Amino acid sequence: xxxxxxxxxxxxxxxxxxxxxxxxxxxxxxxxxxxxxxxxxxxxxxxxxxxxxxxxxxxxxxxxxxxxxxxxxxxxxxxxxxxxxxxxxxxxxxxxxxxxxxxxxxxxxxxxxxxxxxxxxxxxxxxxxxxxxxxxxxxxxxxx
Length: 144
What we know:
alpha+beta
């Protein structure tokens, strides 16, 4: 079994919305062969809580406006460290960069096929590392 056309449409729209709000390391997996509850997962991250919320809000607004999709569940809003949007067909995880490293969801799903995403979303790969290096360099400069 593979992700449905609707799931792929939702994943692509969510990935583009996340990229438009400068999410880092956007990736999607087809989990339909190993899970019966959903077809696909989208993972994205951001370096701070406010940006996590902004990304989540943009995904939710875009999927509702463009595709008429509303999440059946939204979890993690209060802390904005890891927000989950459950659309049944897909599940979107937007994590603070620290949570992304700690929980390493990519390791859990690495055996599942990766879904092709819009170019803007693909271009976000490695952005978390770039941001971490820039922040470390800035901090080192302050310490001198």
